[in-house]
Design goal:
The complex is a heterodimer of chains A (about 325) and B (about 260).
Chain A: H1 2-27, H2 33-56, H3 64-79, H4 88-107, H5 112-132, E1 142-143, E2 148-149, E3 155-156, H6 163-185, H7 188-198, H8 200-205, H9 210-236, E4 238-239, H10 246-258, H11 264-279, H12 287-301, H13 305-311, H14 313-323
Antiparallel strand pairs in A: 1-4, 2-3
Helix pairs in contact in A: 1-6, 2-6, 2-9, 2-10, 2-11, 3-4, 3-5, 3-9, 4-9, 10-11, 10-12
Chain B: E1 6-15, E2 18-28, E3 33-37, H1 44-52, E4 59-64, E5 67-68, H2 74-79, E6 82-84, H3 97-104, H4 113-118, H5 120-140, H6 156-168, E7 174-178, H7 186-201, E8 205-209, H8 213-219, E9 222-227, E10 230-235, H9 237-241, H10 244-251
Parallel strand pairs in B: 3-8, 3-9, 6-7, 7-8
Antiparallel strand pairs in B: 1-2, 1-4, 4-5, 9-10
Helix pairs in contact in B: 3-6
The chains are: A mainly alpha (about 325), B alpha/beta (about 260).
Amino acid sequence: MRAILRRYLPALVLVILVVAVQITLSATRQEFYMTQLTMAAYYTMVALGLCLLMGYAGQVSLGHAGFFAIGGYSSALIAGLGAAAAVSIPAAVLVTAAAALLVGIPVLRLRGHYLAMATLAFGIIVLRVLQGTPFFGGADGLSNVGAYPLFAGLAISGRRALRVQNYYIAWSLVTIGLLLAINLVSSRVGRALRAINGNEDAASAMGVNVARYKLATFVLSAIYAGVGGACLVHFSAGIGPGEAAVMKSVRYVALVAAGGMGSLSGTLAVSAALTFLSLRGVFGLYDDAVFGGILLVIMLFAPHGLPGMLAGVRARRSARRSAS
Amino acid sequence: MIDPHLEVRGLHHWFGGLHVIDDVSFQCRAGIVKAIIGPNGAGKTTLFNLIAGALAPASGRILFDGRRIEGIPPHRVAARGISRTFQATRLFTGMSVLENVMVGRHPRMRGGFLAGMLGPAVTAGSERRARGYCMEILEDLGLAALAPKEAHSLPFGRQRVVEIARSLAADPRLLLLDEPACGLNPTETEEMAVLITRIRDRGVTVLIVEHDMSLVMGISDEVLALGAGRRIADGTPREVQSDPDVIAMYLGDDRA
C-alpha cells in the first residue's frame, strides 16, 4: 500500500496543485493566468514523452518540436475537412505516430551524437516544409481552427467562457499522461528501457529486443508530443511553423535535463513552471537564450537536474558512484 | 545422452583480415561444466559472442538442442535458454540489485508497452511472481540483504555474483560465464568455484572461459583448448593438461 502511494504521489500532488491553483486564481479574479497554464500543460506533454525517451531509454531527440507541429498541423487540417472534424485529434495523433515510425526506423540505428544530429535534421525538415508550403499556410501557419467538441458539452477551445473548463481538460490530460508514464517506467518495459540506457549489449543478452523497444519508445514519446500539439491547436485556434523550430526542440531537451533526466515528476514540475513563465513573457526577448542557458548550466553544474540539486539525493548518489 | 546439448560445427569468423575463429568444432553435453581455455587472443570471447548471438559467424553452424542458433540476435538466443555474463561486469547503472536481476527475468515475463502503461491492474501478478523468483535466487546466492542497494555501489566481487544471479533469473539451460574469477581474490575464487558447481548441480549446463587453471581443472568436466582461433585439444581436464600441443602452447614451442 505504501509502495503504491509512493509511486503515485507525484500524480496526487499534481491533482491537488491543479485544483488549488484554480481555486486561488478564481477567488482572486486572476483567471487570465489560466490561458498560459493551459498552454503550458500541452507543452508539458512533449516534455513528459521526451523524458521517457531520453531519461529512461537514453535516446536523444532534438526533433520533438517537429512531432508537436505534425500533431498540431494535422489536427487543424483534418478539422477543416468538416466530416472528419470530430476525430481530428485522434487522427492527428495517429499521423504523428506514423511519422515517428517512419523516421524512427532508420534513425534509431544511430547512437549518441549521430542520433542527435539525425533528429535535429528531421526537425529542420519539418520546419522548412511547413514554412515553404502554401498548403500549410507558409510563414503564417494555419488559423481559424475551430473548437474541438469532447463529451458532455466539454470542448477544447480558447473561448473565454471555457477558460476554467479548458484548464482542467489540459491538466487532466497531463495527469493521465503522467500516470501512464509512471506505470510504464515501473513495469517490465520500464526496467528494460533503463537497462538499454545502462548497457545495450547487456540488455540484449538478457533478452531485451533493444531495437524494438527503442522504436516503440520513440513512437510513444512522439504520441505524447502529438497529443500536445493536436490539443493546443484547437485551444489557440491556430498554429505557426515556429512550433517546429529547432530552438523549441532544444527547449524540450532543456526541460527534461533540468527536470533530472530520468525524473517524470521533475520534468513535469520544471516544464510547467518554466513554460508558464516563458508564455507570460517573463524572459522577454531573451526567451530562447534563457532555455539555452538553462541547458548549459544544467549540463555543467547539475547533470542530475534542478530537483536533484535541491534534494541533494541524486548528487550524493553520483558522488558514491564516482568514488567506487 | 545421444544428442549433444550444444554443438558447434566448422565455425569461422574474421575480424578484418584476422582469422579469429578458424574451423572450430566441439560438442557439449547437457549438465556438465565445460571450460574453454587458451592464451589471450585465442578466440575464447569471440566464440562466446558467436554462441550468444552478439556476433554472426562467417560460416559454420551452432546447434542448441538440435536447433540452429548461429546468426540470430542476442535477445532471441536468450529466449531460447542461453544466458551469459561478461568479462568486465556489465550491471545496469542506477538500478538496484533486485532490479538488475529482474531485467534478467525479462524473457520469462510477458507484457509490453500497453500492459506496462495500464499498470498494476494488469501487471501486478507477473511483477509479484518475478520479484519472488528473483529474490529466491538472491537468497540462494546469499545476496538477499543487498537487494535494494544500487548494483554499482557493491564491491567488485559481489557485482560478479549479481551478474550471475541476473543470468540465472532467465532460468537458462545453458550459462556462458566469461572469466568469472577474473579480478577476484583467492577466497572469492574459491566461492565462485562452489557456486559454479552448484549451478551445474541444479541442471544448468555451464560453458566457462577462464584463465585461472586451478579453478578450471577443479570444476570442469571437460576442457576445450583454443590457440590462435583453432581447436588444440578437447577432452577431460587430465587429457587436455597432458596434451603436448597444449603444453607447447602455454610454455612455448621449441619445435617451431
